[in-house]
Design goal:
By secondary structure, the protein is of the alpha/beta class. It is 27% helix and 16% strand. The chain has 2 domains: 174 residues, Rossmann fold, CATH 3.40.50.720; 234 residues, Rossmann fold. The strands form 3 sheets. An 8-stranded mixed sheet has the order 3-2-1-4-5-6-17-18. Helix 4 packs across helix 6.
Length: 425
């Protein structure tokens, strides 16, 4: 193998400015491992083209010389080259219908696909991800949405001074504004005290909590919402784990392993907390087999006067938050869901609950998220060039974390991903 790496320009949408590898990483690959990098010119990439050239990379319109090609988001079907090794977030491993044509093209063109999402260590922990940065940007946007929704309702409040994550020069600038705001909290009656509920405890949740913790928050347990009198002029943080959100249908004791393996034995109990929450930040992993947290039926039958905003960072369409009707873009991030008419309206005005459902949140803080991602990916890149891809998959000497994330190998689904055949047919 010639050790030639390709970096694609991102074309998913105009807000996608992230990169897989920074110029500094490209230079390290060249100097320490003899890996040559080709890249496509881009006017919107967060690092300038000249930065890559200065690091020793060479610009190409088409990356046909590269054996291994990196991207962040899905590559358009027409740009999939034959016999290449691709790494990107393919959004195919759940059998997502909208990307099955992309997966079929990768198969037809005899390519190899390694998806970042299932790259994990021996303890099943993801190694290459943007999750924490989705949490950072998501909480900034959640507070931004809260402020502007209250303003649209005619309620003056401090949070209307918070901008959307993309409108700050960097994450530190956003943090500075939020931290300064927290020095003197004055809550309007509608959200006094302010209760912020966060579902989940993974990387997205951790990122969201780090932003919220810049304010003077008091953390309480979910049951405290139901049993204790909350104090005025305070901000409360409530983090919900699985045992807080679901219960066994027959009234038995919650068991996490059983919940994952026998989900049909469980039902949601989360909606009992909704009347107490002002800002709900949803950061859980969800599949169809799991109960929904917030249903249209519940919101239509219960007056949720306190629930102002749902920031759905998970953004599963009609998923754990059933009224997440669509993923929003960064230039139009919010819509109002009206439970009585089951309808949505873009913007901050209208009857109902404001939802912020941007599904590409790390792109709003492209410098920090790219630097983190590049640092995570770098140890794996030299390993990609050590393998002999002419061997059968069984004999392929690729490092385990990469081999386990190999969805397609030389035009065929690998054993761990054979289940995708039913979604292709």
């Amino acid at each position: 193998m010639k050790k030639i790496l390709g970096i694609r320009k991102e074309v998913k949408n105009k807000w996608e400015r992230r990169v897989t590898l920074t110029p500094a990483a490209v230079k390290e690959l060249k100097d320490n491992f003899g890996i040559k990098t080709l890249f496509q010119l881009s006017e919107k990439r967060i690092f300038d083209d000249q930065d890559y050239i200065d690091a020793g990379a060479q610009a190409r319109e088409i990356l046909d010389e590269a054996e291994i090609i990196l991207a962040v988001k899905e590559i358009p079907i027409k740009h999939i080259l034959e016999n290449k090794i691709y790494l990107f977030f393919s959004h195919t491993i759940k059998g997502q219908p909208y990307n099955m044509p992309l997966l079929q093209t990768i198969l037809d063109r005899n390519c190899t696909l390694i998806d970042y999402e299932p790259i994990k260590d021996e303890n099943d922990r993801r190694l290459v991800f943007f999750g924490r940065h989705a949490g950072y940007a998501g909480m900034v946007n959640g507070l931004f949405t809260l402020g502007h929704r209250l303003k649209a309702l005619g309620i003056s409040n401090q949070f209307e001074n918070i901008k959307q994550a993309k409108d700050y020069p960097n994450l530190d600038a956003a943090k500075g504004v939020i931290k300064e705001l927290g020095k003197e909290i004055k809550l309007p009656d509608r959200i006094n005290p302010l209760v912020v509920g966060i579902t989940g405890y993974g990387n997205v949740s951790i990122g969201a909590q780090k932003i919220l913790d810049l304010l003077p928050v008091t953390q309480i347990e979910p049951d405290d919402l139901l049993t204790k009198e909350l104090v005025k002029n305070k901000i409360y943080k409530v983090v919900f784990k699985e045992e807080d959100m679901v219960e066994e249908i027959d009234g038995g004791t919650f068991d996490l392993e059983e919940y994952y393996n026998e989900t049909d034995k469980y039902k949601s109990k989360f909606e009992q907390y909704l009347p107490k929450i002002n800002l709900l930040v949803n950061a859980i992993y969800w599949e169809e087999k799991y109960p929904r947290l917030v249903t249209k039926e519940f919101t239509s039958k219960n007056k949720l006067h306190n629930l102002i905003v749902i920031a759905d960072l998970s953004c599963d369409i009609n998923g754990s938050i059933e009224m997440t009707e669509k993923a929003t873009l960064s230039d139009n991030p919010v819509f109002i869901y009206n439970p009585q008419t089951d309808s949505i309206k873009d913007g901050f005005d209208g009857e109902g609950i404001a939802l912020m459902t941007v599904d590409n949140l790390p792109a709003e803080i492209p410098v920090e998220s790219s630097e983190w991602f590049s640092k995570s990916l770098m140890p794996l890149v030299p390993k990609l060039f050590e393998a002999d891809y002419s061997k059968s998959f069984e004999e392929l000497d690729l490092s385990p974390e990469l081999k386990n994330a190999c969805v397609v190998y030389n035009g065929e689904l690998t054993p761990n991903y054979k289940y995708l055949e039913e979604f292709l047919n």
